[in-house]
Fold these 2 entries.
Entry 1:
Amino acid sequence: MMEETKTTTAFGADVFGKEAINTYLSKDTAKKLQATIDEGKPLDASIAGEVAHGIRHWAMDRGATHYTHWFLPMTGSTAEKHDAFLEIKNGEPIMQFSGKNLIVGEPDASSFPSGGLRSTFEARGYTAWDPTSPAFIKRHSNGATLCIPTAFCAYTGESLDKKTPLLRSMQALDKSLRRLMTLFGRPEGHSACTLGAEQEYFLVDKEYWKKRPDLVLTGRTLFGAPSAKGQQLEDHYFGTIPDRILSFMNDVERELWKLGIPAKTRHNEVAPAQFELAPQFEELNLATDHNMLVMDALRNVAEKHGLKCLLHEKPYAGVNGSGKHNNWSVSYGGKNLLDPGKDPNDNALFLTMLCAVIEAVDKHADLLRASVAGAGNDHRLGANEAPPAVISIYVGDQLAEVLDRIEKGRADKGKQAGTMKLGSDVLPTIPKDATDRNRTSPFAFTGNKFEFRAPGSSVCCAGPMTVLNTIVAEAVDRIAGELEAAKVAGKAKPGEHTAAFHNALQKILQASLKEHKRVVFNGNGYEADWPKEAEKRGLPNAPDTPSALAALTKKENARLFEKYGVMTKRELESRHEILLEEYAKKVRIEGACARDIASEMILPAVKSEYLETLQAFATAEKVGVFSGTAALKEALVELGSGLDQLKSGIARLDEALHDGKENTTLCAMQVLRTTIDALERKVADKRWPLPKYRDMLFLY
Ligand code: ADP
Ligand code: MG
C-alpha cells in the first residue's frame, strides 16, 4: 500500500466515528446517534441497546475483549475499570454489552479524591457517556479494550471529575455568545471552543531512569550538578532529531493517528533531550481527551524504545522546564471570533471579543494562576524560559495601538487618521507573524487565537480551559448586558451596524479597556523589572501553589462559578481541598525521597571516598612520602566538611518532614541539594551512585 493510503486509512481506525457508525448501526439509529453527537445531547435511551450492540461488534472485530468507562478524575490523570464482554448465562459463555452498560457505569468512587463531596460510606459514583467524545480502542501487547469517554459524578449529582465542569463552562460561554451575537445581528449559530495543546516532554534512557529513585518516584531529579554543556549553545531547538528519537516519535504518531488524534508537528525543544508534539487543533472537549491520550501514548511508546518519557514540568534544574501551551479560540457559526479577518465589518466583533478576553483575564488573573498551580509547575513558572507567575496578556504593538485608540476614543493619535469607527477603519490588517514575536508572555494573542502558556506539561487541559471559558463567558455576558441596556441592537443587519450601535459599543469597550488595560504587557516577561512593574500595576503574583490556590476560596470566585453553572461552591471547595492536599503529598514524597537518596546512596559514597583518601594520606605519612599529601589533606578537609553538611542537611530535612510543613521541607531539600551537587564534583565518577546530568541529557 502507498504510504498516503496507509496513513489515511489508519487515521481514526480505532475510533467509533462516522464510518464505524454507518457500518455497524442501522441507518435510522446511525442518524439519531450522529444528531446526538452533533448537538452534544445525552444519548436517546431508545437507541442505546442497538448502539451498544454495534459498538461491541465493532470493538470485538478489532480484538477487544473488555470495555471500560474512561474518565478524568480529579487526580488529573485518567481512570478506567475494565469489564469483560463475557457473561455466563445458564452455564453458557456469551458476549454481551447492554445499552445500560454503555450509558452509565457505577464504579466504586471511594478511592478517588472527592474533597469531601462523597464520604466512603456513600461510595457510589456514576459515570455517564459523553457522546461528543467518541468511543475508542486502547491496545496493549496482547489485547485491546473498548474505552467509552464519560463524565464522573457522585450520587448527589456533584461532579467528581474534570470533564463535567469543562462541559458546563462551554455551555456557559455558548449562552453568553448567543446573547452577544443576537445583538450583533448574527444569525443563530453553533458556538465551539477550540484547543490545540502543544505538549512538551523529556526523554531519558530507561537504564538511567531505573538508577534514579527520584525520577522513578517523583518524576524529577532532586539532585544533580549541571552538565558542562547544557543548553548554552542553543543547538538543540529545532535541531536534527536523532534516529532513535525519530523512530519513537514515528511510533507515537502512528498510535495517535489510529485514535483519530491529528498529531501534526514534532521537533526538538530548547533543552537537551526535550521535545514537543503539537496536534492540529480540535473542538475543546475532544482535544482535552485527546491530550490525555497523547500523554499516555508518549509514556507507553517510550517503554518500547527503552526510553522513559518525563512529563514533569521541571525534570532537571538549570535547563528549561516543560509546558503545555493551550491554544484556545472560540467560533460561532463556523467563524473564528478571534480572527480579525479581512472584512472590516467583522472588526467590531473581533475587537469586542479581544476586549472581553482582556477584561476576563485582568479580572480573574488569580483564577487563571490557580488553574495552573501544582508542585511541578512551581519549579517552572518564573524559572528558565518559563512564563512568569504574574498573569499578563501580550497583544503585540499593532493591536496595542488599536486598543489605545479605542480607549482614547479617537483615531487621530494613531498612524491612521480619520474618525473612530469600530466597524470599518479602526483595524489595520494584522499580519499573523507580527503578533507573535513574544515568547515570554503567559497569555499571548497569536494572530487568531490566544495561547495560554502557563499550564505545565503534565496538567489536564480541562482545569485551565474551564476557568478561561467561564471568565470569558462572564465578560461577554457583561458587555452584552450593557449593549442591551443601550437599546441599540435589533436594528442592525448582519455585518452592518448603525452609528448608535457603534457609539454604544465604543463607550463600553473604552470603559472596559480603561479599567483592564493594566494586564496588557508587551515587553519581555523574563526581565527582572517586570515583577516590580506588575506590582505597581496591581497585578497579582502568587509565587507558589498554596498562595495561588487561595483564589479558589474567595467568595466572589465561588459566586462566579455558581452564576455560570460551572461549579457549585461545594464543588469548588472540593477542588481546592484536593489540589492543596495533592501538593502537600507531592512535597512530602519528594522530601522523603531526597532524604532516602541522601542517606542511603550519597552518604555511603562520600564516606568511602573519604576513607580511601584518608587511607592514602595515612599511608603516605607512614612511609614518609610527602608529595601529594597536601592535596590529599585538602581533599579530606573538603570531603569531611561535605560529610558534616550532609549529615546536618539530612537531619534538617528529616525534622522538616516530621513537622509536615511544605515550605520548610522545600527549603531543607534545597540546602541538601546544594551540598550534594557540590559533592558530586569531589567524589570519583565511578563511585557516584546516580547517573549524572551529562549522561541523562545527552545519551538517550
Ligand atoms: P507555535 O508557533 O506556538 O509553535 P503554531 O502556530 O504552529 O504554534 O500553532 C500552535 C497550535 O495552535 C497548533 O496546535 C494549532 O493547531 C493551534 N491552533 C491554530 N489555530 C487555532 C484555533 N483557531 N484555535 C485553537 N488552536 C488553534
Ligand atoms: Mg506555542
Entry 2:
Amino acid sequence: MIQFLHVTKTYEDNWKALCDVTLRINQGEFVFLTGHSGAGKSTLLKLIYMDERPDEFHGGEVMVQFNKDLVFDTKTATEKQVQELRRHMGIVFQDFKLLPDRNVFENVALALRITGTPEKQLNSRVFDALALVGISQKRLAMPYTLSGGEQQRVAIARAMVHNPYLILADEPTGNLDPENANEVFRIFKEINARGTTVLMATHNPDFYMNSPFRRLTLSHGVLQNRDIL
Ligand code: ADP
C-alpha cells in the first residue's frame, strides 16, 4: 500500500512540483499516472522510492507498506531503510539505463550479485526474469546490439528479478514505437496479474482509455482526483 498524506514538494528554487497531494494505492493495483510534461509525475514517483522527501514545513508524509514488517515512512526512513525499501521494488525508466559494458544476463544479475545471492539461485532467478519478458535468447547480447523495445524488456527483467512488491514505471514506452510500446504494456499487465502492484506514468491515451485500471492525473502539481483514503 502506498499512501500520500498532504504531500507538498518544493524544489530548492522555490518551485512547487507537488501541492497537497493525498492518495492511496492498494497492494495489487494497476494505476496509471498521467499529466502534462512538468505536472509532477516523476516527482511523485521519486517520493515513493524516497529519492526526494516531502517539504517538512508542510508536514506531509509518504508511507509505503508491503506487509506488516515492511513499512517505510518518509518522516522516519534512514538511508539504510531506503536501501531496504528499494530492494522490494523495481523501477523502470524511459531511457532504460542499462549498463553498456555488461551483457543482458549481467545487467539483470547485477542487483542479485550485490546482495550476495548464491550462484544457483541467481541463475534461476535471472532466467525466470528473462523468460517473463521473452528475451532469454538474447542473454549474451550487449545492450547496444538490441532494439529499444528489447532494451526496455531487459530493464523490466532487471526490475523484476527481485520479485518486488511494486513496480514504478516512469514513461516506460516514451522512446518506443507503437508495437514495442504495446508489448511493454502487455508485460506490465502480466506482471500485475501475477500480484505485483504497478504504477505507470504515461502520456499514451491508448493505454488508459477503455482500461479497467484507475488513473491518477496531475495538473501543475495538483492531483485532479478525489482519492478515497
Ligand atoms: P513530469 O514528470 O510530470 O514531467 P517532474 O516531476 O519531472 O514532472 O517535474 C515537475 C516540476 O518540477 C517541473 O516544473 C520541473 O521543472 C520541476 N523539477 C523537477 N525536478 C527538479 C529539480 N531537481 N529541481 C528543480 N525543479 C525541478
